[in-house]
Amino acid sequence: MIMKRILFYILFFFIIKLTYTQGSVDALRYSFTLNGGNARYMSMGGAFGALGANTSTFSTNPAGIGLFNASDFNVSSSIIYSTTESVYNGNFGSDSRLNAGLANVGVVLTKDYLNIETHGKWKNVQFGFGINQLKSFNNRIYISGSNTAHSIADFYAELANGISVDDIENDYYGDYSYDLNPAWWSFLINNIDNSDQYFGTSPPGGVFQGKLIETWGSLNEITVTFGANYDNRLYIGATLGVPYFNYNESSIYTEDALQENIPDSTYRSVVIRDRLNTNGTGFTLKLGAIYKLSDWFRFGMAIHTPTFYTQMQDEWDVSISSTWDDYDDEKNNSPRGFYEYELTTPFRAIASVAFIIQNYGLISAEYELVDYAAAKLNAPDYKFQVENDEIRSTYTSTNNIRLGTEWRVQNLSFRGGYNYYGSPFKNNINNGSTSSCSLGLGYKDRNFYFDLAWVLTKQSEDYYLYGYGNVNANKTVNNFKHSNILMTYGFRF
């Protein structure tokens, strides 16, 4: 019966932010990645497709492994400080979150350690292994503001119109178990003269609304990469990637009456708690090549097959509580929902160029094409036809640009980068573009190197607390800033 609910809600997805349905939001959340990496890679905007010799390229252009002449090991840690500023009905809200952890690990073994002999123009063969964090989900959002037009109880009433009371009351494990059933038993809605028409029991004079959304987890990728060097001109590589993720979301929505004196038949306050946990594992194949036209110019190309997440699992629940001046407080919990399904993310194509200025520095650029409309949901017992149609009508292809530069003074390197990821939304229905600027510093002696990077990422989105039919909350504008400090320690052997 969960599929019936998904069909009912998906048509209104961009108005109703329901955390417990599988839909286009899931497809975008796990398809949209910013290609994380170690400190040198990140400080140069990730523009390494034509440069190589960096273990982070295992996740972008695996041909980069072909430029390693010696075996390499590196490990990176990161500290991320995320802030969100929200404006809702003229009211400003903000929140922040600080996280630290391991960003990635990379190992490269060349032919000397693999005991492989090369002949003719084949100069070297490499094997690499890495664990790379592609995306962090850690964030906190706080939205608040007064609303004198309607409340979330009016939204539930609009949602319930036309549905019989018996269906709602007896639906603890059915179609309305995560919204109308707990809303009814918390007395947020009532029906008119025992009919299937409803009204919200919201207090007169309006309510003060607030919502705290906290997310945590990450999307990571295990990479196994092979590469080779032909005549010090052509470098080729292939990566078998095993991405895996864990996403957690907890939200608390509140309403409080603006007036001090309210009728007995209306609630004083409401608290709605939503919880979602999603985890998944998939696989993908990445192929790449780099060609040196000269000592100062090279270009690269890579393609990524779609990622096939064959093991996606959602768990979710919701609780609704209401307080009253002259009645007992009410609290109702939904059952715990669980569903397994599959997701296929889009194909990717990457082209890159690099200009090498002798031993002094370099400039690099990278272009990536991704069509988010190609994402697809599936399950053994349900084909997600409506949801996949929604993905195709909502998302579009994007043009992503990454730029980087590095300049060396003896053992020191100074770096900078910029990248821009276009909005995945069609017809400007939302603002989903993302941009980052970065700075970095590196030190390298014969066998050891240390890199430091700072990356500032900005993103904006439109968010709606609720909405259906004639009851729609005004738009909230959320502005995100993520400040990431990375440190990489590495040595070659």
Write the layout of secondary structure elements.
Layout: H1 2-10, H2 24-31, H3 39-43, E1 72-88, E2 91-110, H4 111-114, E3 122-136, E4 139-147, H5 152-160, H6 165-169, H7 180-185, E5 189-191, E6 198-200, E7 207-230, E8 234-257, E9 269-292, E10 297-304, E11 308-323, E12 330-333, E13 337-344, E14 348-357, E15 361-371, E16 376-378, H8 385-394, E17 397-409, E18 412-421, E19 434-444, E20 448-463, E21 467-468, E22 471-472, E23 476-492
Characteristic terms for this protein:
single chain, about 500 residues, mainly beta, Porin, 14-stranded antiparallel β-barrel, two-stranded antiparallel sheet, 8 helices, elongated, disordered N terminus
What does this structure look like?
This protein has helices at residues 2-10, 24-31, 39-43, 111-114, 152-160, 165-169, 180-185, 385-394; strands at 72-88, 91-110, 122-136, 139-147, 189-191, 198-200, 207-230, 234-257, 269-292, 297-304, 308-323, 330-333, 337-344, 348-357, 361-371, 376-378, 397-409, 412-421, 434-444, 448-463, 467-468, 471-472, 476-492. The chain has 493 residues and is mainly β. It is 11% helix and 55% strand. It has one domain (2-151, 202-492): Porin. The chain is elongated.
